[in-house]
Amino acid sequence: MNGEAIERLGASFDEAFLVIGLIILGIEVMKSLLSGRLESRKFLDMFANVSTQLPYLLVEVFVFSSIYVGYEYLAANLIGWTIPINVWLALATLLLADFIYYWEHRFAHEVRLFWTQHAVHHSSRFMNITVAVRFGPGEGFLSGMFHLPLVFLGFPPALIYFAILAVQAYQTWIHTELIGKLPLLDGWLNTAANHRVHHGCDEKYIDKNYGGILIVWDRLFGTYQREEETPRYGLATDFESVNPLRVWVSELPKLFQDVKRARTARTIWLALFGRPGRL
Fold first, then answer.
1. Which of 29, 130, 210, 260 counts the most CB atoms within 10 A of its CB?
2. 277 phi-psi bin (left φ>0, alpha ψ -120 to 50, beta other)
3. In the predicted model, is pLDDT for residue 2 greater than 70?
């Protein structure tokens, strides 16, 4: 397995989950139309979800290109070894990237500065496939930082990059209410039922089920919650706008206000790096 094979594998992985997502989206829209439940607000929310790809891609093209180039530079100039690429290494890299994603995702929920970006993904009051592409424009910075140790361990940058994208692509299909509980899978994979919990703003659902592909990390680290009643989706503090511009920056105005009002170094620190909602 070489760099070109990894790129082809990554492209195939992305395309497969894109097709799955489009099929689910088609069923969701058709079901809403037939039931007369595709109200204008839901449609506008779906449009706002897709619109976040504009600022996201504008930033991420630069961010992920820089991350990849930086990883390659470090591997070539500072690391004296590279683990030979094979199928087993690819699987190991994917497993480690999924473990790292758990902590990256949890960090984005627990540190306010990064929550301002990730909150965009959580601010919809609906759950459908378009929520899978609802991103804050700066989310990629955190990913680059958290996966950096893999470079220093000698993992090939191309494999790291593939694993990051694969963990993200997998999560496309789980943003839906069409798929119910899957008893044989819910205990160890991140499924639609598990991820609906993650998007819930009910007290028992908040900050649960951070896993990317595997949900076993949540079970190991005490953040697992099974789906009981249907969650109320969205942020704990009401955010009802479907205006794309407001969706893109939903948490930033309050952050700027809190920093501006802060009078001590401690309150500035808490405003930026404290737990969201705990200032």
1. 130
2. left
3. no
pLDDT tens figures, 212-232: 999 999 999 999 999 999 999
pTM equals 0.90
Rounded to the nearest integer, the mean pLDDT of the chain is 89
